């Protein structure tokens, strides 16, 4: 049986998360994050769907997801996936962009995939520094230089990091879901709220947001659950606070989208001291 390793670290110097998945076959359904993801494939071949564009990605390819970019992926070649990524919260990205450019804004990275990119080597070395908790001088220098190159080569300052403004009804649905995540939400209720038929609502929402209403709700719940776990709330309470019927239901959805169980993710936030905290989960 293939040895599966899932490692997650939080670096308090850079204020970023670093994930490493080794030997996994997990399929990730359509979802999004409320933060930036800069990752690369070490080994494995995957089919990636992002913002309705399809890609075949493999070793040496770099992927970049902006906040709220819907994406899904699954293995193609029957072999396992080795993958590393760095996650950057928007407020952290905003501060780094100000440091680098002198202007405070949220960038929109335009390519989703950088095929066979030389940046994969830089990302790999930086990722190792974060995972190993190395001193912040060289680590911060490499991180700033990496972001500077990405900003210079793969963004357009005139393009804000947001998609086209959704229709009023779709915006209403998003706002309702985001403010009622702990409650039971039905398609019937959303239809009554907007005056749209259920079918038209479903098609319009999916077309404009790139994700179905139910998947949007689940993703919002999981993103909120991450923040509660980071604050030390027990998983069983987080499940209740985010609208899941029970802890088992919550755990299944969390691992499906994040790649870790809630307990595994929360483990890195148990100790507040030190500049780097991590959890290594082997199966």
From TrEMBL:
CDD domains: cupin_YbfI-like_N (cd07001). Residues 171-268 form the HTH araC/xylS-type domain. SUPFAM superfamilies: Homeodomain-like, Regulatory protein AraC. The keyword DNA-binding applies. Gene3D superfamilies: Homeodomain-like (1.10.10.60), Jelly Rolls (2.60.120.10). It comes from the Bacteria. GO terms for molecular function: DNA-binding transcription factor activity; sequence-specific DNA binding. Keywords: DNA-binding, Transcription, Transcription regulation. Pfam families: AraC_binding (PF02311), HTH_18 (PF12833). PANTHER family: HTH-TYPE TRANSCRIPTIONAL ACTIVATOR RHAS-RELATED, TRANSCRIPTIONAL REGULATORY PROTEIN. This is AraC family transcriptional regulator. It comes from Paenibacillus durus (Paenibacillus azotofixans).
């Amino acid at each position: 049986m293939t040895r599966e390793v899932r490692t997650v670290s939080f670096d308090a110097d850079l204020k970023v998360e670093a994930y490493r998945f080794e030997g996994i076959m997990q399929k990730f359904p359509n979802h999004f994050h409320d933060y930036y993801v800069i990752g690369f494939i070490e080994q494995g071949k995957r089919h990636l769907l992002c913002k309705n564009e399809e890609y075949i990605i493999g070793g040496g390819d770099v992927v970049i997801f902006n906040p709220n970019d819907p994406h899904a992926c699954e293995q193609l070649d029957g072999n396992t996936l080795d993958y590393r990524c760095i996650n950057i919260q928007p407020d952290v990205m905003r501060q780094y962009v100000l440091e680098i450019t002198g202007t405070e804004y949220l960038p929109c990275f335009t390519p989703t995939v950088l095929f066979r990119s030389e940046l994969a080597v830089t990302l790999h070395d930086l990722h190792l520094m974060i995972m190993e908790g190395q001193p912040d001088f060289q680590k911060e220098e490499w991180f700033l230089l990496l972001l500077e190159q990405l900003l210079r080569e793969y963004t357009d300052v005139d393009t804000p990091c947001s998609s086209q403004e959704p229709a009023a009804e779709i915006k209403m649905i998003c706002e309702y879901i985001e403010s009622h995540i702990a409650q039971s939400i039905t398609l019937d209720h959303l239809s009554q709220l907007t005056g749209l038929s259920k079918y038209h609502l479903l098609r319009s929402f999916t077309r404009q947001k790139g994700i179905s209403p139910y998947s949007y709700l689940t993703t919002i719940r999981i993103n909120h659950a991450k923040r509660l776990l980071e604050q030390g709330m027990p998983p069983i309470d987080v499940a209740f606070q985010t609208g899941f019927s029970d802890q088992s239901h919550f755990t299944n959805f969390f691992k499906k989208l994040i790649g870790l169980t809630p307990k595994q993710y929360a483990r890195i936030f148990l100790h507040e001291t030190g500049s780097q905290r991590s959890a290594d989960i082997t199966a």
